[in-house]
Amino acid sequence: MRTLLKGMRRAYTLRSVATALIVDDESNLRKVLSALLTRDGHTTIAAASGEEAVTTLKTKPFDIVITDMRMPGMSGLDLLEHC
Predict the structure, then answer these.
(1) Any idea of the CA torsion for 64, 43, 18, 65, to the nearest 10 degrees?
(2) Chain centroid to CA 49: how far?
(3) CATH of the domain at 23
(4) What percent of the chain has pLDDT over 70?
(5) Through-space distance between the first and last CA atoms of the chain, rounded to whole angstroms
């Protein structure tokens, strides 16, 4: 198992940098996820709601969207229809 994890970590570090959109109504969670991804060299943009994320998605492409599923207003599932 350790060998597999080492191999996975090595494969992960060889991957290119991703641009991630982080969507969550809880600011602390957005900050933590953004910090972790940024520390690994990725670019992050955060949105506090599904509606804000839809507007952001229209401005630039993202490699990955990480979203809370339960948010006031637009749910994460509804947001994914716009990706």
Answers:
(1) 0
(2) 13
(3) 3.40.50.2300
(4) 82
(5) 35
